[in-house]
Write a structure and sequence with these properties.
CATH topology of chain B: Rossmann fold
Number of helices of chain A: 1
Largest interface: A-B, 36 and 42 residues
Largest sheet of chain A: 2 strands, antiparallel
Largest sheet of chain B: 5 strands, mixed
Strand content of chain B: 15-25%
Oligomer: heterodimer
Structural class of chain B: alpha/beta
Helix content of chain B: 40-55%
Number of domains of chain B: 1
Helix content of chain A: 25-40%
Number of strands of chain A: 2
Distance between the termini of chain B: 40 Å
CATH architecture of chain B: 3-Layer(aba) Sandwich
Number of strands of chain B: 5
Strand order of the largest sheet of chain B: 2-1-3-5-4
Radius of gyration of chain A: 22 Å
Radius of gyration of chain B: 17 Å
């Protein structure tokens, strides 16, 4: 799996990014699963409300 | 100023594409927008630790928390390195940027940019090959950041909302830093 690459610059002692990220192929199945997650989340909110805590009776 | 340049694959080539929590929140609630925007913003997408924290915080329902965690663990996002030494530098970057924002925008008053957005700005400053997808352009001011592209979408209430692709500009940073160094001190 692609990762960031960070090295220490021996001259300055600071860390620098040395990688050159390349676009990755996104599988349509991954996007479809994300869409399903969002739909499931929306259905949960529809059922419960976003924050179903009862109001304080003060 | 009118910005009409749409986001293109050229804007994203060879870049880490950071998402901010505002944009994540938008696509987490709209399946259609999610699908279209993820297809448009294709490349090395990353979620940094600060954004992850902001996206997952204050969730009341355990089921929603689980969905959000599953969302972030998708393989459409690439891992980003986290290390104490990097955090130290990013923190220094964020602090320096906050001073420049204060000088540039509001005469030294405490700024409105959140700590998480400052740290995210410091992260963009650390990674030269990086852009950020954000719905809150004002948190990444034009005195330091360039807007490389924009796309619009229609919200549920019918209003249009702009999503920006911003990039840290080293030259602008150096210019503002030099100006900050010349601020006269009162004795």
């Amino acid at each position: 799996m692609a990762k960031t690459t960070v090295c220490r610059d021996s001259r300055t002692g600071r860390f620098v990014d040395t990688s050159s990220p390349t676009p990755r192929k996104t599988h349509s199945a991954s996007i479809e699963r994300l869409v399903e997650i969002v739909k499931e989340s929306n259905a949960i909110i529809e059922r419960h409300g976003n924050d179903p805590r009862p109001p304080h009776n003060s | 100023m009118i910005l009409a340049h749409p986001i293109t694959p050229e804007d994203l080539k060879g870049q880490y594409i950071f998402f901010d929590s505002d944009f994540l929140g938008i696509i987490f609630s709209d399946p259609e927008l999610l699908k279209e925007s993820i297809t448009l913003i294709d490349g090395f997408r990353v979620i940094d630790g600060f954004t992850r924290l902001e996206f997952l915080r204050d969730v009341w329902l355990p089921e929603i928390r689980e969905k959000k965690e599953e969302f972030l663990s998708s393989d459409i996002f690439c891992p980003i390195m986290e290390h104490q030494e990097l955090f130290k530098q990013i923190k220094e970057n964020a602090l320096e940027l906050s001073r420049l924002y204060a000088h540039e925008n509001n005469g030294g008053k405490k700024g409105s940019v959140s700590t998480v957005d400052l740290l995210l700005a410091g992260t963009l400053m650390f990674y030269p090959n990086s852009v950020l997808v954000t719905g809150n352009k004002k948190d990444f001011p034009s005195c330091i950041f360039d807007t490389k592209g924009v796309f619009n979408f229609e919200q549920g209430d019918g209003n249009m909302r702009a999503i920006s692709l911003v990039k840290f500009n080293q030259d602008k940073f150096e210019t503002r830093k030099a100006a900050y160094a010349n601020v006269p001190t009162r004795r």
